[in-house]
Each structure stands twice: as structure tokens, then as C-alpha cells.
Amino acid sequence: MLPVFAQNSTVLEIFLPRANKEVPFVIEAEIEGLNLSNNKIQSLEEARLPNRTRFLFLDHNLIRKLPLSLLESLKFLTRVTLSNNPWTCDCAALDFKKWVVSKSILVSIKTI
């Protein structure tokens, strides 16, 4: 069973001090921002995030690729930080780039 996080706040910060490689959780709260920076996350394949999320901070993790389906489900996303992750450059990355350009969101990627 996936952990469920409910929160009354509009911004939720989650710090995973153990070497969590995946983020298998569901967040049911109607949050505006989610900070998952500075963890050891490798995958968000099973994560389900609130579709009203506007800010998503994923910098300083171990993420190689993001599922496009996750990003497409975030209809109100305006900003995502992705710096300092070991990104994989392949055809899926091209789809990700097309998605970013089509959505006109602010994306911060300093190192790829």
C-alpha cells in the first residue's frame, strides 16, 4: 500500500533522509508546491501528485528521467527545478523538451 500524505498547508516539503530510490506515494492534499529537493530520489514512476500543483522542486536528486505522464497530469504546473540530477539524454528526453516548450513553464536545469 502506498503512503498517503494529507496536509492543510499549501506547500509540502518532504525530506527522505534514507536512500529512497523511488517515490511510491500519493498526496491527496490540494497543495500548490512540493519540495522534494536534496534527496536521493531516482524515480517518480509510481508517484501521484495533486493535479493543482504549481511548483515542483526536484533538484539535487538522482533522477535520470521523468515520466511524461506525471508531468502531463500537473495541469497547473508553472515552475519545476531539475538541476543537479544525472539526466539521461535519449528520445524520451526529446519528448520532455517538447513538453516543456509547449507549456511555457519555468524550468531550471543547470547541469545535465
Automatic annotation (TrEMBL):
Recorded GO CC terms: plasma membrane
Keywords from the UniProt entry: Leucine-rich repeat, Repeat
Organism: Caerostris extrusa
InterPro entries membership: LRR_dom_sf, LRR_TM_domain-containing
Name of this chain's protein: LRRCT domain-containing protein
Keyword Repeat: yes
Coiled-coil regions listed in the entry: none
